[in-house]
# Entry
Amino acid sequence: MSFADTESYMYLTREVEESTQSPMIPNVPQFNDKDELEIARYLDSKLHRSRVSLDIGVQTDSSKESQKASSKQQVFSSPVPEKAWNPIMQSTPAHMSSRGVQPKDILKAKLSKLAQSVELAHDSESSSGDEEHDEDQERGVLGSKDSSYHDDTPSKPQAKRNTSLKEDKGIGLSPKRSAELEQLAKLKEFLNSSTNGSKVLKSIVNGEPVKHWRIVDDSELESNAKKVKDLEEEIKSLRKQNDDLKEETTIIKSTNISLKEMVELKDKSIAESRDNVRELENSIAEINASMESEISKYVGDTSEKISPLKFPELSTTDSNGISLYDGLNLCEVDNLTMVESQNLLKNILINLNIPFSRVKELVPQLMLRLTHEEILVDFTRKLHTVLYDQGMDITRYLNETGNTGLVRCTSEMLKNVELVYAVLEKK
# Structure
């Protein structure tokens, strides 16, 4: 740390509230973790180095000033040895107050001496008269122990103004320091004119970290601007895609609602159809039962059906090998419809002049009569042959007029028989 840096730092730090022990005590953050003796040693060593540097700086101005600097060097080049240095003895005023020496008072005295030495250095560079005055004041500060602590400390605003004025003029600064200040001024001007430079400068002044700041050139800015534009276009495209997806989602949701309604309607229709089918099945079952009942009335008990199985004698065959069942064509009767069967039965009853109520009774008698008829027909044929010497063709009397012819023929035959009987009886 150089002498100018120490001075700038000491007088540019913010002020703290006045203490009851001392009206003005600087707040130096570097000293917060050090005790009073260490701080006092540090300030004394700084004071010693500042005196030596002051001697070297003044010696280069002129031969006259060099001689004066030599005398001052003789005065200041022989300080009290470090081993024999006692910070309390050198920092404590000649007249001690009744309340005792406080560590802050010792530090205050050291800071006062250092500030006065700084002011001496700058004043000696500006004029020789001021230099002699500063030397007397410095010797007075070093040798006098009677002055109070409050009188030794210059006012901070005045020190700041003096320091700022001297630094602006570049008086008493080394070429390296001047070059650094010039570079700092150019850097400040560059930062103020560059993008985000003022923000970086503000962060530096406020003691903020600047790791997140970066100075870029125009080409990089153009590249970044192009990237930003591309990103904006991509964001715009993504937003459009997002809007399209939202619209499609809305359509899908509405479609899902419609499909859901259709499914619900379909389920409802299926339930109604199932109910209708159940009702129809019940109705069909009732109709089938009714039809079976009606059919059973017309068909009757099939177990009572006349068949060769039930009546084996119908299976007997004649000389031609034809069974009675087939010879009578009874299988055709099985194929008759109900109406055909009814009509056939009715025609038989009408032709036989038999009431249906007596069918079961008269059919056996009818069969017996037919047997007798065959016997009588055979007798009539034979009688006809005896009387007329020719056979009788009975088939001629099987038509509608057959009964009249048969009655007339039989009547004539009977008369002839009576006539023959009468002739024979007379003989």
Q: What stands out?
A: Residues 1-27, 56-64, 68-101, 125-157 have pLDDT under 50 and may be disordered. DSSP finds 16 helices and no strands in the chain.
